[in-house]
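Researcher: Go.
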Amino acid sequence: MKRDLQAHIRSSRTKRRRKQLQTRLLVILSAAVVIGAGLLFYLSQSKFHVQEVRFSGLARVNENDIRAELEQELGERRWFFFPRQNLWFIGTTDVENALASVFSAIQSVSLKKDFPSTLHIEVMEYARWGVFCMGEGEHCMWIDQRGVAFENLSGALAESVPRVYERNAPPKELRTQVIESRLMEIANYFEGKEEFKHITMTLVHGEETVRIQTKDGWDILLLAKDDYEKTYRNVRLALDTEIKDRVSSLQYIDARVGNKLFYKFR
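Model: Structure:
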């Protein structure tokens, strides 16, 4: 009987402890719900809604267009409930990626929140290096210094812009590198030389020959795999010591055979 009494006491204590624990958990849970609801109510106040958007870095992209896209993006709800126009609930990465994907001239977007209601958007646009054209110019796109196409060309092209033509080129898409890195190295190098300024480079897809036209109208032919700096030095030497004042009637210099140069005059 004594054992039964002890067992009953232990059972009663266990039940009391379990009930006390349940009560504590209920109190904690209730407090968490109240605090969470209060915090959510505070964060959801209209004073945290975006009232001002400040842009920096815009040059070619129209500010009204990007504002309209931003309003559409913020007009949605996050997790089907929270308004995205509230600074607390704006996913910076989502908005940055959305704006960059819509405007091809934009290379990157950086979004910063300035509480309680200001949004700072810093835009980095692609820098125009020149133009890439497929075929004889049927479809042209602006490219940056790396050969990445980012914007279709519309309207006439100024003579002072370097350009690269590729014949028999497969289809190219924006936001992709449309010219191989090696070929862009060659293009950048010769574009940096005064006598080659505003070059026109002509390629044939699948072939090694690169034809570069100078601003004076004569061409140089070289192979993409060759040492283009050495080729330039050889051409420069020939211009200074052999061709000289006949450069005005020069049609091209062929530098595709080792250190030998072949000239053709008009």
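Model: The CA atoms of residues 69 and 99 lie 7 Å apart.
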